[in-house]
């Protein structure tokens, strides 16, 4: 008898063992379905983090332009390829190649975090928050801090999703 069709009142002492054996067959798929739902929510949060990162990056870029903060050619390429495009490409890849996409998000967000912390808060340069024009400093500093937070969150969440995905398979 199918475990899903057994009603509580139909269980007798002789059918309980059968009921439990039938039920245990569904334990692993049920656990994986639960993980799938959990991973689905984590993936949605990861997608939200990537999109929020894009919005904050655009606003931070406007603060860069308004404050006339120059970036080298290498820094501009890094910003465009790794900081802006990397997480978006990773997000797009999560549909056809989920594992690659998730790890791409994790790596590009972590690299963005390091780049931002070093350039905005460590190295003395025109890109340091203390060196930015005072009229643009509040927006520049706020977006630099928000970028750091969302990059840490995005990278950590992507690593968590990748690890949970591996343990679920």
Structure description:
The chain is 78% helix and 0% strand. It is an all-alpha fold. It has one domain. Helix 2 (27-66) packs antiparallel against helix 3 and helix 3 packs antiparallel against helix 4. The longest helix is centred in the first third of the chain and has 40 residues, at 27-66. It is elongated, with a radius of gyration of 24 Å. The two termini are 29 Å apart. Residues 26-35 have low confidence and may be disordered.
Short description:
This protein is an all-alpha fold and 169 residues long. It contains 5 helices and no strands. It has one domain (39-168).
Question: What structural keywords apply?
Answer:
169 residues; mainly alpha
SSE topology:
Elements: H1 13-25, H2 27-66, H3 73-93, H4 98-122, H5 137-168
Helix pairs in contact: 2-3, 2-5, 3-4, 4-5
């Amino acid at each position: 008898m199918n475990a899903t069709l057994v009603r509580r009142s139909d269980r007798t002492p002789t059918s309980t063992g059968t009921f439990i054996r039938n039920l245990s067959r569904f334990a692993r798929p049920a656990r994986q379905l639960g993980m799938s739902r959990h991973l689905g929510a984590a993936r949605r949060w990861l997608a939200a983090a990537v999109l929020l990162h894009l919005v904050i990056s655009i606003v931070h870029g406007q603060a860069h332009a308004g404050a006339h903060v120059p970036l080298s050619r290498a820094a501009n390429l890094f910003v465009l390829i790794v900081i802006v495009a990397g997480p978006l490409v990773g997000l797009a890849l999560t549909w056809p190649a989920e594992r690659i996409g998730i790890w791409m998000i994790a790596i590009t967000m972590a690299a963005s975090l390091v780049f931002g912390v070093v350039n905005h808060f460590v190295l003395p340069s025109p890109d340091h928050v203390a060196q930015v024009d005072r009229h643009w400093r509040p927006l520049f500093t706020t977006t630099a801090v928000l970028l750091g937070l969302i990059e840490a969150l995005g990278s950590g969440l992507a690593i968590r999703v990748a690890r949970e995905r591996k343990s679920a398979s």
